[in-house]
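Order emerges. As here.
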Amino acid sequence: MPADSLLTNFNFAVQIELSGLGGDEGLAQGARRAAFSEVQGLEITLEPVSFREGGYNRGARQLVGKATHPPLVLKRGLSLDPAFWAWVRRCTDGTFPLPYVSGTIRIFQANGSGSQPGVWRFENGIVNRVKAADLHAAGGREVALEELHIVHEGLSRETP
């Protein structure tokens, strides 16, 4: 059984690209791939700003302030790419500058048709938490990552 066939058990594929902002020197070029069974944090919150305008007596105008993005939380996943783990190690070992990356989260149909109903892109992300799966001698689990948290500077939805 080819190693890539293990990734087909998951519905969310993550591809990571180097951002070119520094700190990613020495990481292997090419896509860093992983697959996960749950993704959380696909959210953008816009902070409202109230503005009182002279002569407008119906109340304060509402403007859009800064956007905030919660961390992406990728759960129950697997990566067979050593470059993916090199990026995680560079984020967690405290070296400076941090290895910022950009990435794409592709959502696949559960029926295996290969169609992609959703594609999300995050910018300038770094790992902020990694939780490995518990190890059980009798379990035989395939899950290598229980949770991976990525903090980032922006999220957008792309058309597939």
Notes: The first helix runs from residue 82 to 92. The chain has one helix and nine strands.
